[in-house]
Amino acid sequence: MKIGIPRALSYYNFYPFWLGFFSALDIEICLSDYTTKNTLSKGASLVVTETCLPVKVYVGHILNLIDKGVDKIFVPSIQSLKNKIYNCSKLRGLPDLIKNIIKQDITIIDATLDLSEDKKLYDFLFEIAQYFNIKDTNKIKQASKQGFQMYNNFYIMRRSGIDYKTALKYSSQNRVIIPNVEKEYPINIALISHGYNIYDDLTSMKIFSKMEKLDVKVYTAENLSNEQMTEGIQALDTQLYWANELEMTGAAGHFLQNNKIDGLVTITAFGCGPDSLMVEKINKNSKIYNKPILNLTIDEQTGEAGFVTRIEAFVDMLFRKKRANILKNIDFNNDDIKFINKQNLKKINNK
Ligand code: SF4
User: Fold this and answer.
1) Can you tell me which atom of ligand 1 is nearest the CA of 268?
2) Rounded to whole angstroms, what are the CA distances from 1 to 133, 146, 272?
3) What is the pLDDT along the chain (351 residues), one digit of tens a residue?
4) Which range marks the domain in which residue 237 is found?
5) In terms of domains, do 234 and 280 share one?
6) CA of 271 to the centre of ligand 1 (A)
7) Regarding beta strands 187-192 and 263-269, do their DSSP bridges make them parallel or antiparallel, or are they unpaired?
8) Are 76 and 128 within one domain?
C-alpha cells in the first residue's frame, strides 16, 4: 500500500503526524521531490494566473507524484481546525481544484476535516483508512497515537529552537534532541509567514541561510506556544477567524511586544486575501509598538537579487538603529567600547 504526499502546503505543518500515522498502518509514503522552477512552472500552467503561489507549487507537486507512478494521492480538504475558525477557500476546495485540472486516472484521497461541524478528527482518519480498506478501529486509533507522538516530538524541538529541517529529521526517526547552548546574534528578527512560504527553499529563496550569513537570529511562530500566539491576537485587539491566523497575527502580536526582537519581516504570497488583511493589522500595530517591519510579497516573478537587497538593507537599518540606541546610554570612559561593530554588539547585548 502506497500513498503520495505532495511536499507543499499543509506538509510543512503536519507531515510528522502523517508519517507516524501511515507507517503504523503499513502504508508506504511517497513524497514528491523538492520544489524546483520546473515544479512551479508546470503547476502554474494548469491554473489561472491569479491563483496564489503556494497553490501553484502544490499543483506542480501533484504532477511530480504522478510522474513517479503514484496512483493514490493525499489531498485532504481541511475546512476548519477549531470551532468557527476556517481555512481560506483555496485550501478548503483543494481536492475539487485538483480533480478538475488533473485528467490522469488516479485516486485523490479527499477526506474532509471540519471541526466546526459534528465531524471529529477520528472520523477524518477513519475516512482516510477506508481508501486502503482498513477498518480495524483499534489499529486506526493506535496509528493516530503514533502520529501524535511524532508530531509532538517535532513540535517540542521546534519550540526549543531547533531548525525546521533538523527537527523534521529527528522526529522522523522518533527521536528528540534539545540544544543546550544557544548561539548569540547581534540582531534578532521575527519572520511572520506560513510554513509553506518559508520552509520551501524555492519560494523562500533560502531565507534562513541568508539571514544566518547576515548574523541574524530568526524567530518564527513555531518557537511560540499556542497560548503566546493567542495572547498575541488579543494584544492586537483582533479576533481569530482564519485557521492559520495564529502563525501570522498571533505570532506578530507576541513578537511586537518582545524587547528581544529588533524587527519583523512578513512574507506573503501575492494575491492572498487573508494574509493581506492580517498584514494590514500587523503594520498598523508595528507603528504603535515602534518596531520596524519589512513586508515582502512573493510570486513566480520575484527576483532573488531584489529580495536579498531588501533584506540586507533592512538588517543594516536595524543594526544602525540598535547601535544608536546603545550609544545613547554608553559610558564613553569605557575603553572596551571605542567602536561598536557586530561582534562587540553581541557582548553588549549579553551585558
Ligand atoms: S492562505 Fe493565502 S497563500 Fe495560503 S493557500 Fe490561501 S490564498 Fe493561498
Assistant:
1) 3
2) 10, 18, 36
3) 899 999 999 999 999 999 999 999 999 999 999 999 999 999 999 999 889 999 999 999 999 999 999 989 999 998 888 888 889 999 999 999 999 999 889 999 999 998 887 778 899 999 999 999 999 999 999 999 999 999 999 999 998 888 899 999 999 898 998 877 677 889 999 999 999 999 999 999 999 999 999 999 999 999 999 999 999 999 988 888 888 888 999 999 999 999 999 999 999 998 899 999 999 999 999 999 999 999 999 988 888 889 999 999 999 999 999 888 877 776 666 655 555 666 666 655 655
4) 187-314
5) yes
6) 8
7) parallel
8) yes
State which of 47, 86, 196, 272 you would mutate to test the pocket of ligand 1, scoring each by most atoms of that ligand within 8 A of its C-beta.
272
Do 146 and 236 belong together in one domain?
no
> Is residue 97 assigned to a domain?
yes
Q: Would you state the cell numbers that stand for residue 263, as one nine-digit string?
A: 524587527
The three cell numbers of residue 130 are: 477506508
Between vectors from CA 284 to CA 282 and to CA 286, what angle results, nearest 5°?
65
The ligand 1 atom nearest the CA atom of 52 = 8
Residue type, 72: K
Residue type, 146: Q
